[in-house]
């Protein structure tokens, strides 16, 4: 068995350290994948895990070419997405891990990664990036970011809402959105959108680890299938 971990941010890798110790105790092969370039957290990660077990996609020529495509306006961003998706399909078809454990499944790159893995018949498990998360906390964050649907939305916003109505959530008299319109439309065409963008673990995931009954009930209330959740007490 081979278990791969996808981390959407370097500092979240500290959460998976106990899991990796358990895999090593059972002599199970593992590797860490990330699209994030090295930052101030990387030296700490190098102390936790062997460098040869960490694959930084941002340092590959293929990814750098995709990033250059993404700088060519909106058509370039779509081309970059397609390029990266095809490359991920080839990567998982070649590597053939048994499981992919992800710390996040709602960001663009985690969406691409889990979708490609599932197509290649890799089981995907969501391991939360934090101890507990509530939808209301995420809504308050979006208010701070100003992600409020305009009173007179443009054509892209209207099309996005028709394609994916759950992208908008009412909160304190405001209508908040999770994904921007152009990104949503591109993600819709590629089949990357989660069942709901408000709950981690709702996108191309076979099993979701939840740390408590409280988190289980919160997830279920917002539409995450109870049968796909496992109360683990972790993190």
Number of helices: 9
Give average pLDDT, whole number.
Answer: 86
* Rg computed from alpha carbons, rounded to a whole number of angstroms: 18 Å
Strand residues, percent: 15-25%
Describe the main β-sheet briefly: 7 strands, parallel
Query: What is the CATH class of the largest domain?
Result: Alpha Beta
CATH fold naming of the largest domain: Rossmann fold
Number of strands: 9
Oligomer: single chain
Task: Offer a concise description of the structure.
The chain is 42% helix and 16% strand. The strands form 2 sheets. It has a 7-stranded parallel beta sheet, sandwiched between helices. The protein has a two-stranded antiparallel ribbon with strand order 6-7.
Describe the protein's topology.
Blueprint: E1 2-6, H1 17-25, E2 29-34, H2 42-48, E3 54-56, H3 61-70, H4 73-95, E4 99-102, H5 108-119, E5 123-126, H6 135-145, H7 155-163, E6 168-171, E7 174-177, H8 181-189, E8 207-210, H9 213-221, E9 229-231
Parallel strand pairs: 1-2, 1-4, 2-3, 4-5, 5-8, 8-9
Antiparallel strand pairs: 6-7
Description:
This protein is α/β, with parallel strands linked by helices and 235 residues long. The chain contains nine helices and nine strands. It folds into two domains: 2-132 and 200-231, Glycogen Phosphorylase B (Rossmann fold); 135-189, no CATH class. It has helices spanning 17-25, 42-48, 61-70, 73-95, 108-119, 135-145, 155-163, 181-189, 213-221, and strands at residues 2-6, 29-34, 54-56, 99-102, 123-126, 168-171, 174-177, 207-210, 229-231. The longest helix has 23 residues, at 73-95. The radius of gyration is 18 Å and the shape is globular. 31% of the residues are buried.
């Amino acid at each position: 068995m081979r278990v791969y971990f996808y981390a959407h941010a370097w500092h979240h890798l500290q959460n998976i350290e106990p899991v990796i110790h358990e895999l090593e105790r059972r002599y199970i092969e593992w590797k860490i994948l990330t699209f994030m370039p090295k930052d101030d957290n990387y030296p700490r990660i190098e102390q936790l895990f062997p460098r040869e077990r960490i694959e930084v996609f941002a340092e590959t020529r293929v990814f750098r070419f995709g990033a250059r495509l993404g700088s060519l306006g909106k058509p370039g961003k779509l081309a970059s997405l397609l390029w990266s998706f095809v490359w991920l399909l080839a990567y998982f078809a070649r590597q053939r891990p048994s499981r992919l454990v992800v710390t996040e499944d709602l960001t663009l790159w985690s969406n691409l990664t889990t979708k490609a893995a599932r197509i290649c018949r890799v089981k995907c498990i969501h391991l939360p990036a934090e101890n507990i998360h509530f939808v209301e906390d995420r809504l308050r964050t979006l208010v701070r970011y100003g992600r409020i649907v305009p009173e007179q939305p443009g054509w892209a916003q209207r099309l996005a809402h028709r394609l994916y109505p759950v992208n908008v959530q009412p909160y304190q008299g405001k209508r908040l959105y999770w994904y921007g319109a152009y990104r949503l439309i591109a993600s819709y065409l590629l089949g990357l959108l989660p069942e709901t963008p408000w709950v981690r673990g709702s996108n191309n995931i076979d099993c979701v680890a939840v740390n408590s009954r409280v988190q289980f009930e919160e997830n279920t209330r917002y539409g995450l299938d109870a049968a796909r959740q496992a109360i683990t007490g972790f993190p």
